[in-house]
Amino acid sequence: MVGSLSISTDERLSVIDxxxxxxxxxxxxxxxxxxxxxxxTTAAVTINEGEPRLxxxxxxxxxxxxxxxxxxxxxxxxxxxxxxxASLIGPSETVPVSDGSLDLGTWQSILFVECDGPRTRSLEVxx
Length: 127
Description:
Layout: E1 2-8, E2 14-17, H1 19-25, E3 32-37, E4 43-48, H2 52-65, H3 74-77, H4 80-89, E5 92-98, E6 101-102, E7 109-114, E8 120-126
Antiparallel strand pairs: 1-8, 2-7, 3-5, 3-8, 4-7, 5-6
């Protein structure tokens, strides 16, 4: 099964819980694993708690961890910080699936991380 989800963001750096969208993309009888992949170099995906204050903390930490300016790549398109943040997190996650449901831990959510928004991105789900 191949599915592409559309994710829109309003800010340059934002973290969005996409767990329900990913699970809804799975066929009802899917078993095995699902891979969630971001085909962009300035966006990422991770698994963590989807609690709103933690999501805000993740956004703050990423902002503070990587300076916005002063990178050589900025001479091309002024988004080196976005590439670096996305590289630190990574483009994919693999999750076990049983009977069409994600087998995540109690507090785990799939989080899409936009590092160069606002944009509309694709998120690929394969199961």
